[in-house]
TrEMBL record, chain A:
It is an enzyme of class 7 (translocase). It comes from Metarhizobium album. The gene is potA. Keywords: ATP-binding, Cell membrane, Membrane, Nucleotide-binding, Translocase, Transport. One of its GO terms (molecular function) is ATP binding. InterPro entries: AAA+_ATPase, ABC_SmlMolc_Importer, ABC_transporter-like_ATP-bd, ABC_transporter-like_CS, Mo/tungstate-bd_C_term_dom, P-loop_NTPase, PotA-like, Transp-assoc_OB_typ2. This is Spermidine/putrescine import ATP-binding protein PotA. PROSITE patterns: ABC_TRANSPORTER_1, ABC_TRANSPORTER_2. The complex is composed of two ATP-binding proteins (PotA), two transmembrane proteins (PotB and PotC) and a solute-binding protein (PotD). GO terms for cellular component: ATP-binding cassette (ABC) transporter complex. Its EC number is 7.6.2.11. Part of the ABC transporter complex PotABCD involved in spermidine/putrescine import. Responsible for energy coupling to the transport system. Coiled coil: none annotated. The keyword Cytoplasm does not apply. GO terms for biological process: quaternary ammonium group transport.
TrEMBL record, chain B:
Belongs to the binding-protein-dependent transport system permease family. CysTW subfamily. GO terms for biological process: transmembrane transport. PROSITE patterns: ABC_TM1 (PS50928). Residues 86-293 form the ABC transmembrane type-1 domain. The chain crosses the membrane at residues 36-56, 90-111, 123-145, 174-195, 216-241, 274-297. Keywords: Cell membrane, Membrane, Transmembrane, Transmembrane helix, Transport. PANTHER family: INNER MEMBRANE ABC TRANSPORTER PERMEASE PROTEIN YDCU-RELATED, INNER MEMBRANE ABC TRANSPORTER PERMEASE PROTEIN YDCU-RELATED-RELATED. This is Peptide ABC transporter permease.
Length: 354, 305
């Protein structure tokens, strides 16, 4: 139960920089997701914390102690792998007891801890089975018990739920969160599943080409994305480009969009609006606070029962997407001209300008 | 049954086709025929012939009437020196298998874990290379190395000019050396196949739980490679017990093994029944050894497939 500090860590394979100057802090007891597309360096960062990869430069500290040069076996980490990585020739109990034996804990004491760990992952009485006799979800629970039973300084999860089917994955997300809370372990979780990252984490770090582009609580990262990449990678987003005049964004067709946060000083700027924040309003209808209005034409309607997705084209040619709850049962027909309205607070300026 | 699945879809849609439908055992039998037919002709028949020979009084050539007897199976009692030779053969077999297992396992480990792509292919070819040369040439080249004043001595004297010879041709270690050289590739390949299937994450998991290389080797790698080691041991031990070329060429006077004795019965003494009886006796001994070991291995390895 300790914090993890990464200071100026960089890693290059041949000519390809995989991680570029990463500095970040994982607070004690926190659950942080590293989220990014493949090749963004999220797994490399996790493996550097674990010790499987030595960074070219920079420092890794676990609980205040510099472990950059410490080999994996001496780091006291708990790791869970995508492929479960259970020892196939050992029983479930032997798997869980493996790390305890390396710490000199054997016999009755080890048995007590193993039983407790198996209770925690809700597999009591499974100790004598072989990994092959268990389902994927059960195997991953054993792997989790094996990683947690040694009371590691930090719990590292490398896409642990990716190999499971959708229903099992949702079930395991709940379990994972519960176990993390119960143990209070500082947890770093690598995933490419954004919903999983948002649902589980205290903090989400979005990685792009070897850099952390944004890190913060899920709601902050989702509601206030800083860059186009962060906005696009996490959820769907509509972008408007235009010129800054009088503190507002002037689109090419003359429409003016207001933002709650100050626009950058540049002449050109880009703002992001989440599709569910915009709503279709009747002409002349005022929606309180929704002072940003544009008109657009509906190209497609995707009907999914409780929710509707409209694909539209704005006057200035920007293609848009909006999500609407099917509250009244009325569906705006394709081809119709509508007005969209939303709050300036949901109009987020992007730091990387158009 | 797969054979069923192949035939049914074609046969069931129309009633008329039902008359042409072959019984399901036919497809199974047809698929197995080539393999089992070949085994029958190439392995089982010659073995049966030898078994019949082993009960004959003398080699069935010429006009002498064929008389059946059990006397050749008493050879180990009537000629007690054969027991000593059999023991020597087993000792050579154990040493060769043991050295092959140790060297082969680590070579396979290096091949499977430390190399990638082209380097791995090159190493594999280098390992298989001895297979492509004639066995006799391989064994004779060892005599050039091991004899007094041979290649080994030349190297030795270059370091220590005053020292005596360290050539050990015509000794039991020379026989074992030649046999290890000949049979090592089997062990490397069987261990390699077992080791290459081990997921990297399993090794990493062991490391993350605090295991050092020694623990990983003894608790993870060796147990998981056990099927390969066992197969390799069988592939080495059986032919080594029956080998006669290496003992004869590298062993000289000490190179009397069951292999050479049996070969002598067939080529020199022209006593095929005795040779056959000795072969079957050794086969029984080897099977007894495997039966003993397989029990031990099963208990230690648990449920490893």
């Amino acid at each position: 139960m300790t914090n993890v500090d990464i200071t100026s860590v960089a890693k290059t394979y041949g000519q390809v920089p995989v991680l570029a100057d990463i500095t970040t802090h994982f607070a004690e007891g926190s659950f942080t997701s590293l989220l990014g597309p493949s090749g963004s360096g999220k797994t490399t960062l996790l493996r550097i914390v674990a010790g499987f990869i030595t960074p070219d430069s920079g420092k890794v500290a676990i609980g205040g102690a510099d472990v950059t040069e410490t080999p994996v076996y001496a780091r006291n980490i708990g790791m869970v792998f995508q492929s479960y990585a259970l020892f196939p020739h050992m029983t479930v109990a032997q798997n869980v007891a493996f790390g305890l034996a390396r710490r000199g804990i054997r016999g009755a004491e080890a048995k007590k801890l193993v039983d407790r760990a198996l209770d925690m992952v809700r597999l009591p009485g499974f100790g004598d089975r072989r990994p092959k006799q268990l389902s994927g979800g059960q195997q991953q629970r054993v792997a989790l018990a094996r990683a947690v039973v040694i009371q590691p300084s930090v719990l590292l999860l490398d896409e642990p739920l990716s190999a499971l089917d959708r229903r099992l994955r949702q079930e395991m997300q709940v379990e994972l969160k519960r176990i993390q809370r119960e143990t209070g372990l500082t947890t770093i979780f690598v995933t490419h599943d954004q919903e999983e990252a948002l649902a589980l984490s205290d903090n989400v770090a979005i990685l792009d080409r070897g850099r952390i582009v944004q890190i913060g609580p899920p709601a902050e990262v989702y509601e206030q994305p800083k860059t186009r990449f962060a906005a696009e990678f996490l959820g769907d987003t509509n972008f408007f480009k235009g010129a800054v005049s009088n503190g507002a964004l002037q689109l090419s067709d003359g429409t003016s969009l207001r933002t709650a946060a100050a626009l950058p000083g540049n002449a050109k700027a880009m703002v992001a609006v989440r599709p569910e924040k915009m709503q279709i309003v009747g002409d002349g209808t005022e929606v309180e606070g929704a002072s940003n209005r544009i008109s657009a034409r509906i190209d497609h309607v995707i009907y999914a029962g409780p929710a509707l997705t409209y694909v539209l084209t704005a006057k200035d040619g920007t293609s848009l997407k909006i999500f609407a709850q099917n509250r009244t049962g009325t569906i705006h027909p394709e081809g119709s001209e509508v007005t969209l309205a939303w709050h300036p607070a949901n109009t987020i300026p992007m730091e990387d300008a158009a | 049954m797969p054979a069923d699945a192949i035939i049914r879809p074609a046969a069931s849609p129309s009633g008329a086709a039902a008359g042409h439908r072959l019984p399901s055992w036919f497809a199974t039998a047809a698929l197995l025929m080539p393999t089992y037919g070949w085994l029958l002709i190439a392995v089982f028949l010659p073995l049966c012939t030898m078994l019949v020979f082993s009960f004959m009084n003398a080699t069935p050539m010429g006009r002498a009437p064929i008389v059946f007897t059990l006397k050749h199976y008493k050879a180990f009692i009537t000629q007690p020196y054969l027991v000593g030779i059999a023991w020597d053969s087993l000792v050579i077999g154990f040493w060769t298998t043991f050295l092959c297992a140790v060297l082969g396992f680590f070579a396979a480990l290096a091949l499977a874990r430390a190399t990638i792509g082209r380097a791995r292919e090159t190493l594999l070819i280098l390992i298989l290379l001895p297979f492509w040369t004639n066995g006799l040439v391989r064994v004779f080249s060892w005599t050039m190395v091991l004899r007094e004043g041979g290649f080994l001595d030349t190297l030795w004297h270059a370091l220590l000019p005053e020292a005596g010879s360290i050539g050990f041709l015509y000794t039991r270690p020379a026989i074992v050396l030649g046999l290890v050289h000949g049979y090592l590739p089997y062990m490397i390949l069987t261990c390699y196949i077992a080791l290459v299937t081990i997921d990297d994450a399993i090794i990493e998991a062991a490391q993350s739980l605090g295991a050092r290389w020694w623990t990983i080797l003894t608790r993870v790698l060796v147990p998981l490679a056990l099927p390969g080691l066992t197969t390799g041991a069988i592939l080495t031990f059986v032919p080594v017990i029956g080998s006669f070329m290496e003992p004869r060429i590298l062993g000289g006077r000490v190179g009397v093994t069951m292999g050479t004795v049996i070969e002598d019965q067939f080529t020199q003494a022209f006593n095929w029944p005795l040779g056959a009886a000795l072969s079957f006796t050794m086969l029984a001994v080897i099977l007894a050894i495997f039966a003993t070991f397989s029990g031990v291995l099963r208990r230690n390895a648990g449920g490893v497939a």
